[in-house]
Amino acid sequence: MKITSIEVISVRLPLKTPFIISYHTYVDMPSIIVKVHTDTGLTGYGEGTPDEHVTGETWEGVRAVLTNTIAPAVIGMSPFDMERIHDRMDKTIYGATTAKAAIDIACYDLMGKATGQPVFNLLGGRYHDTLEFPKVISILTPEEMAAEATAAVSEGYRILKLKAGTDQQLDIERIRAVRHAVGDEIAIKVDANQGWETSAASMQVLEQVKDCRIDWIEQPVIASDMHGLKEIKQKTTIPVMIDEGLHGQKEMYELTATRSADMMNIKLMKCGGLYRAMQLVHQAELAGFTCQIGSMVESAVASAAGLHLAAAKKRIQTNELVGPLMFSQDIAPLDIDIPFVRLSDAPGLGLEIDEAVLKELTHAHDIMHEQL
Hints:
- The structure is a single chain.
- The chain has helices spanning about 60-75, 80-90, 95-115, 120, 140-155, 170-180, 200-210, 225-235, 250-260, 270, 275-285, 300-310, 325, 355-360; strands at about 5-20, 25-40, 45-50, 130, 135, 160-165, 185-190, 215-220, 240, 265, 290-295, 315-320, 335, 340, 360-370.
- It is of the alpha/beta class.
- An eight-stranded parallel beta sheet has the order 5-6-7-8-9-10-11-12. Strands 3-2-1-15 form a four-stranded antiparallel beta sheet. The protein has a three-stranded antiparallel beta sheet with strand order 4-14-13.
């Protein structure tokens, strides 16, 4: 089986409500869907959802890199040759992890379809029978966040993730308001998305919310400040998670050497797809880190890929692949019974793509063919 053509489809996924984090407010999510065609007639779907603040890639840039650089380089290759495909992509262009993730995910979808196996069986088999979603709450007023948290608990959510990282005093009030609203039995995680910037500012907040029973604090300092992250870890009893500060092997090596965090948030878009994410999970296991699979707020395609990895790996104990819950339209359904999501044994990613919705959300469509 070999890749004969690749379609690159630029879409904008409509959000039910604006998604507000420390560095941006999203009213929709720009993403790139790829369709990788083979000489056997099978088609694999992948996705690249960029974030210029995290991966340094834009929607327009990922489209350009895929159409002009990466897709031409991998056409003619077998989707089973993942080591060679990643080596080819890496030699073709440095970085560009979101674009590489799109191709990687589509290849895993193809491998599963060709062998009649769900992707999680290609990644080690199913370890977790069920996967649980958190409720992610955007940055709002303390009262609004408390109300959203209360509503989420009534819907059945048992884990809340609070976005923070703007005004420090308001963040303290937000965390306190939510804990007061939902009581002590609901898990609360806080993500500052680099917004508190320094270890000193972060500790001022964390000292004020010690009694709020936070499960962990995620990326309180800027991504490049590994030493600041370590300082926070040393000064607080709240577990510290690294996110924007961890992309691939380079940061993983530094994290292992410095022990600057307790946990890591692995995202397919940051590291280049399932193949690279598997490597990070194995390194994390050797080093004794707990893993989470996170999301750039992706459609069902990339979300399903992350869920297959989360289902397969013992070391991955949580996921935040909640994009499909946040969109008013998506290109494929997932089997969700809040707060749980279930993966079927269907081959590949196990998705039924709604081509009509995909066409409706499309803003640009490029096709690269094999050169004869």
